[in-house]
Amino acid sequence: MKYMIMIYNRPRFLEDLSEAERTELFGEVDAIIKELTESGELLGTEALAEPAATRTVRVRDGVPAITDGPFIEAKEQFAGYLLVDVTSEERALDIAARWPDAKLFAMEVRQVI
Fold first, then answer.
1. Which residues of the chain have pLDDT under 50?
2. Is 92 strand, coil or helix?
3. What is the pLDDT of residue 10?
4. Which positions ≥6 away from 53 have C-beta within 8 Å?
5. Fewest beta carbons less than 10 Å away: which of 15, 58, 81, 101?
6. C-alpha angle 13/99/21, rounded to 5°?
């Protein structure tokens, strides 16, 4: 079963961490990515640019309107994702719970259909 595990965090939160905290966080991420790669469960993962680089497209009456950034104010942002192919929803939830951002922000797990 395929799941998208979406990573949420606060814009520029990495900049607020000490060098030691960043090293620890990225070490945790690297360990999870290595495990998922070796098990064949990882299909892909990407980090996303800051919300300021986002464009929103809406088509009304056949006319596209393009605006800068996300349209809503939010403290947390969709920062990246993992796409995994796992044996169960429980496994996907386990991966999300182990991701460092889950300790400070949120992870969303959604089955790909």
1. none
2. helix
3. 86
4. none
5. 15
6. 45
pLDDT of residue 34: 98
Structure tokens at 113: 């259909």
CB 46 within 8 A of CB 111: no
Could you identify the residue written with the tokens 């395929």? 2
Q: Which amino acid does the sequence have at 111?
A: Q
pTM of the predicted model as reported, rounded to 2 decimal places: 0.86
Question: What does the alpha-carbon distance between residue 35 and residue 29 come to, in Å, rounded to a whole number?
Answer: 10
DSSP label of 60: E
CB 8 within 8 A of CB 96: no
Show the tokens assigned to 3: 């799941």
Contacts of 48 (CB under 8 A, 6+ apart): 77, 78, 79, 80, 81
Question: Residue 9: is it exposed, middle or buried by C-beta count within 10 angstroms (0-12/13-18/19+)?
Answer: buried
Q: What is the CA radius of gyration of the chain?
A: 16
- Strands 63-68 and 2-9, bridge-based pairing: unpaired
For the chain, counts of helices (H) and of strands (E): 3, 6
